[in-house]
Amino acid sequence: MNLPSRDDPRWRSIVTGTDDYSLENLSAQLVISRVRLMTWDQKEASIEKAIDVVHSFFVKNAEQTKSDLHAIFGRGLL
Amino acid sequence: MKKTLSTVAEANALIAAGRPLMIAGAEPLLRSLAKGCWVGGSIPYFMTEQGGQQSSERLFVTQFPDFCDQGSVKFYAPNQLAQIPSDCPDHGVSFIVLPCASEVHQTYARDCSTWPGLFDRPILGWIAGVDLKDLATVTPKVINGLTGEISGNMAAMLHLPLPKSVSAQVSIINLFEKSDGDTLTFPKSGFEAETCFVNGQKRNCAEYLAEVKADSRWPLVASYTGAMINVSFQAIDAVKKKVVFYAPVFEGVEYHLAKPQADYTARFERELASRNVKPIFTCNCILNYLYAELEGKRTGDAVGPMTFGEVAWMLLNQTMVYVTLSGSP
């Protein structure tokens, strides 16, 4: 699966957004909530660190979280 | 998978076979087990195929499928917990047991989600406890089966590698839902709170809960990107004007009181059946055992220890945690 690159602005939207998405994997649900808490102070450094965490998570779990990636990015956008 | 309530002799026979095991039972029984590739935690409450039961004479031994023939056992002190993600197998599943009310329990609950890579690999487990009548006199324990070391302030983990063609999925069943009422937030994270914000208005938390006649059997619930995560009430102290929880509340998370719960066993069985899963390990919460009066009642095919807290990466309350495997070896 081709994930959006680390620099893709959609990762920033995930970590700074409030969308619940419709996710199947508990780990994906928890990690997205966690990174959103990391960005609560709205500092750029926090946002960048949060993007690192969520991007790394999905890179390592791309196969297991395929349905969640489709829910987040859209089936045709990956 | 075999999940049985066993005598010490039966458990020792399984240990002697050399296969990785998770073992739950009363502390004296755990102390009498042989050394081997296992991790144990104290708890005398179980959900069995015959229904919920308390036993100080038997152990709940979780065996894994035959292809899970290797495992590593490790103890972690509070200041070593952050190493956990790097110790988890690249492809596998890791089980953790933490002694309730210990520093290691509190540190894990408070800090785990800040450890890099925590969510990258499957981690689940439970909080060790004691017979409720012994709460004031006995402390929960965990055991490193490999060394026989027993501790009230270490995390015990079994790291279980899996074949590349098999994957582990950690899931929860939480029957609690958010009520439509007030939104509660907390100015700081922790197991205790004096102050909370109710729809943004600063309040004393204990006073607010008394005012709305909150039923302390039903937890606070927060949505984690759609996953309902509970924080249960340990005490609402009207005199000291503070609230104590069984898991930390977190600054920045929005909580709601849960809707009242009725007919837990029927709803649980329906939910489990609808998922059509065959977990290799499950644990459920002692508060569900107590409040839903599960002694003697079955919860479908879900069997395992009834614990003082559950772990699915994070510390959970009043939730069943389970892990399933997909693929073939």
Explain this structure.
- The complex is a heterodimer of chains A (78) and B (329).
- Chain A is an all-alpha fold and 78 residues long.
- Chain A has four helices and no strands.
- In chain A, helix 1 crosses helix 3.
- Chain A is globular.
- Chain B has 329 residues and is of the alpha+beta class.
- In chain B, 16% of the residues lie in helices and 39% in strands.
- Chain B contains seven helices and 27 strands.
- A six-stranded mixed β-sheet of chain B has the order 1-6-2-3-10-11. Chain B has a six-stranded mixed β-sheet with strand order 5-4-24-23-27-13.
- The longest helix of chain B has 12 residues.
- The model of chain B has no long low-confidence stretch (mean pLDDT 95).
- At the A-B interface, helix 2 and helix 3 of A face strand 13 of B.
Task: Provide a compact summary of the structure.
The complex is a heterodimer of chains A (78) and B (329). Chain A is mainly α and 78 residues long.
